[in-house]
Amino acid sequence: MNAIRRMASAGPLKCKIGPSVLNSDLSQLYQESQRLLDSGADYLHLDVMDGHFVPNLTFGHPIVKCLRSKIKNAFFETHMMVSNPDQWIEPMADAGVNQYTFHIEPCTEIMKTCRKIREAGMKVGLALKPGTGIEAVRQYVDQADMILIMTVEPGFGGQKFMEDMMPKVQWLRHNYPLLDIEVDGGVGLSTINACADAGANMIVSGTAIINAPCSRSVIASLRETVESSIHKCNV
């Protein structure tokens, strides 16, 4: 099935808010994840780092599988910041992941990796580092369910939002009106307008949601901004 048919079958563009659980208290991963879902999150964004593609090391499929055993129905997206994405496709599928988002930079056979992910029963996400131009992913958009535009360098939290990444989002939205476009890094109440105006509809936010006195109100505010932008585009 090509991207146009997949997007058409998905219906109208929707706002989706996915908190990054990496910013939460990982000793209470289940409780924190459930709290975020109860606060209105649409999905959980799970950052997987291998210590090679990025310097940091987080968690792998055993943790994801344990979390899935507690949270049966939520949509799990794994953001695979790893040097060999193919290595973890089957384990993550077995762990109950819904969408497998991998970085195109270390890949030599992107289309083959996309096919493996889909055959394993997961949706395909393609991620671009800030230094990777949009031209690097153009020929693969038809293979993807979602494109992730990183708005910080992957691997570290607390970085400043890079507004100069928004032209990538704008190009994708202009050329693929129904494509899910995700932004990740430094996204919060002060930067959501830039993301929404550019056309992002999937919003990953870490500290802005996790550390807020009321996560529910932050999620609601982010959603209101994005949905308003989607509405303007559809009018």
From TrEMBL:
UniProt-listed Enzyme Commission number(s): 5.1.3.1
Signal sequence, renumbered to the chain: none
Cofactor(s) it depends on: Co(2+); Zn(2+); Fe(2+); Mn(2+)
Pfam families: Ribul_P_3_epim
The entry's keywords: Carbohydrate metabolism, Isomerase, Metal-binding
Isomerase recorded as keyword: yes
Family: Belongs to the ribulose-phosphate 3-epimerase family.
PANTHER family, sorted: RIBULOSE-5-PHOSPHATE-3-EPIMERASE (PTHR11749)
Protein name, UniProt field: Ribulose-phosphate 3-epimerase
Species the sequence originates in: Nicrophorus vespilloides
